[in-house]
Amino acid sequence: MPPRNHVAESVRALLAEEQVAPGDRLPPERELAARLGVSRSSLREGLRRLADLGIIESRQGSGTYLAPLDLGDLFEVRLRLEPLAARLAAQRRGEEDLARLADALAEMRGVLGDPQLFGEADVRAHAAIVEASGSLPVRVLFAAIADLLRHSRATTAGNDDLRAGAVSEVAAIVEAIRDGDGDAAEAAMRDHLAHVGASLSAA
């Protein structure tokens, strides 16, 4: 990996760890460079890479910010990626995958009353479905949007009815995967995402 790409990934990982949200200002360059153990010139190269990718943006006289999240764009990616992941998971899942899915669903139910914890559990449940797909390209693509998913949960996880509905919908997906029914798993994921899309439109 080219040095600036390595630094860019390190910056992205740090921002995710610090839970910097879209629209938030990044720490000063001096602080970022010190925390990552790189020179400021190397850091600037990494930041330029992130700017080229549209992940961060510079504002004259104000600083550097994590770019605002376009939930519509994110949803379009999910709509194409996750139904495929669910279908593949139904076709390829193993016993470890089924156990991981059961644990993820149980976690969602266990934190239903806590919006923040529920949002995190929901992302892990979707990640478990993607992992069960056994597809490296699907896993890589999902990993690329996982941080954005965590931020988007702030829009949907605060609604009690939406959280309860999400549990039922994810349970239907998991059941179809367990039954090895690819058609049903894909359809259940599409139904779930349709409700997500409706909630985003209403937000």
Automatic annotation (TrEMBL):
SMART domains in the record: FCD, HTH_GNTR
Q: Does the keyword Transcription apply?
A: yes
Sorted alphabetically, which Pfam families does this protein's record hold? FCD (PF07729), GntR (PF00392)
Q: Which Gene3D superfamilies match?
A: GntR ligand-binding domain-like (1.20.120.530), Winged helix-like DNA-binding domain superfamily/Winged helix DNA-binding domain (1.10.10.10)
Q: What CDD domains does its record include?
A: WHTH_GntR
Xref: InterPro entries: GntR_C (IPR011711), TF_FadR/GntR_C (IPR008920), Tscrpt_reg_HTH_GntR (IPR000524), WH-like_DNA-bd_sf (IPR036388), WH_DNA-bd_sf (IPR036390)
Q: Where is the HTH gntR-type domain?
A: 1-69
Which key words are in the record? DNA-binding, Pyruvate, Transcription, Transcription regulation
What one GO molecular function would you report for this record? DNA binding
Q: PANTHER family recorded for this chain?
A: GNTR FAMILY REGULATORY PROTEIN (PTHR43537:SF44), TRANSCRIPTIONAL REGULATOR, GNTR FAMILY (PTHR43537)
Protein name, entry field: GntR family transcriptional repressor for pyruvate dehydrogenase complex
What is the originating organism of this protein? Conexibacter arvalis
